[in-house]
Design goal:
The chain has about 230 residues and is of the alpha+beta class. The protein folds into two domains: about 100 residues, no CATH class; about 90 residues, Alpha-Beta Plaits (2-Layer Sandwich), CATH 3.30.70. The chain has three helices and ten strands, in the order ββββαββαβαβββ. The strands form two sheets. Strands 1, 2, 3, 8 and 10 form a five-stranded antiparallel beta sheet that branches. It has a five-stranded antiparallel beta sheet with strand order 5-6-4-7-9. Strand 5 and strand 6 form a beta hairpin. The relative contact order is 0.24.
Length: about 230
C-alpha cells in the first residue's frame, strides 16, 4: 500500500469588524474566516472481484426466447450457488424483437448473472465453468466494504490531524495565537476501473474457456476534510 501526499488549499473570507469570538477581550477585533481542505489518501489492494455473465437466446416467439435464456441462467445458478465463498445473484433480463427491413423476424432474450467473491482462485474456476452456458461480459476489481471502512477510519484520523495542523500554521501566519473551527465536513472518495477482457467475445457454444488469470490492481481511497476556521487579529 502506498501513501499519497495530501493536497491542501485555503481561501480567505474577511468578516466585518465587530464579529466576536469567545473572549470578551476580542469584541472589537477584526475577525477573519479561512476556508481550506486537507486530504489523506492511500492506494489499497483490491480484495474483491465482480464478474458479469450473460446468455443470449433466440426463438420465433418472446416466450420461447425467454424460456431458453431462463433455462441457461437457472442451470448456471444451481452450479454456482453451493459455494459459500461465491456471492451469486441474477442481473438484468430483457426480451426484444429482431427485425429485417422493418419486419419482426424473431425474438431474443438476454439474461445476466453477477458473481462476486474475495477468493480469486474460486472465482476464476467458477467463471470458466459457467462459460459452458453463459458468456463473460466484464470483470471489475474493487475494495470490499469491510476493508474500505477500515482504511477510511485510519485516513479520517490522518486527514483531521492534517487539517488541525494546517489550521495552527495558518493562524500563526496571520499573527493569531488561537483559532476556532467554525465548520467542518468529512468526505470519502474512491474508485476502481472495470476490466472488460477479450474473452468476453467468445461464443457460448465454443465450449468451456480456459481459467482466466487475474491482476486485481489497486483502488485509490481518500478522505477529505473541508472546513472553516475563525481567527481574530
Amino acid at each position: 500500500m502506498r501513501l499519497v501526499p495530501f493536497i491542501a488549499a485555503f481561501t480567505l473570507l474577511p468578516f466585518l469588524a465587530g464579529t466576536v469570538l469567545a473572549d470578551d477581550d476580542e469584541d472589537h477585533r477584526d475577525v477573519t474566516r479561512i476556508q481550506f481542505d486537507a486530504r489523506a489518501a492511500q492506494e489499497v489492494d483490491n480484495d474483491s472481484i465482480r464478474a458479469t455473465l450473460f446468455v443470449d437466446a433466440e426463438d420465433s416467439t418472446p416466450s420461447g426466447a425467454s424460456s431458453r435464456a431462463t433455462h441457461a441462467t437457472n442451470e448456471t445458478l444451481r452450479q454456482l450457488q453451493d459455494d459459500e465463498d461465491l456471492r451469486v445473484r441474477t442481473g438484468s433480463f430483457r426480451t426484444f424483437p429482431m427485425s429485417d427491413k422493418g419486419k419482426i423476424t424473431g425474438w431474443r432474450a438476454r439474461s445476466e448473472i453477477v458473481l462476486e467473491s474475495k477468493d480469486f482462485e474460486k472465482a476464476s474456476v467458477a467463471i470458466a465453468s459457467a462459460s459452458r452456458n453463459m458468456q463473460l461480459s466484464g470483470i471489475e476489481f474493487f475494495v470490499s466494504s469491510e476493508l474500505r471502512d477500515k482504511v477510511e477510519a485510519t485516513l479520517s484520523d490522518q486527514a483531521i490531524e492534517t487539517f488541525l495542523a494546517k489550521a495552527r500554521n495558518i493562524a500563526k501566519s496571520f499573527g493569531a495565537m488561537e483559532f476556532e473551527v467554525a465548520e467542518a465536513s468529512v468526505m470519502n472518495e474512491g474508485s476502481s476501473q472495470p476490466m472488460r477482457p477479450m474473452m468476453s467475445a467468445m461464443a457460448a457454444d465454443a465450449g468451456a474457456m480456459a481459467r482466466p488469470e487475474f491482476s486485481a490492481g489497486t483502488t485509490r481511497v481518500s478522505v477529505t476534510v473541508s472546513g472553516v476556521i475563525v481567527i481574530a487579529r
